[in-house]
């Protein structure tokens, strides 16, 4: 059960990263078109494309594949049973945003307690 929840959280995190990146790209494009300049494109190339939000996407996928392998070993090699157990429900934008905000609040609380 806990592994399934972790897998689901990683799937939400992955969707959140993609959603965030797309939104930032749209914002910079709208900025450039509204003000008739290319500062948004420059900012996106310098900051967004080189940020951890964009460059660190593979870690979620890697960890999810490790969890799948772990679950396959626990289920005795029955991959269909594992995939059914780890099934991620379809996620619309509202679900992604809500879950992402909850994860961010929890993360901020943990960071605040650490310092």
TrEMBL record:
Keywords: Receptor
Protein name from the UniProt record: Xenotropic and polytropic retrovirus receptor 1 homolog
Origin species: Carassius auratus
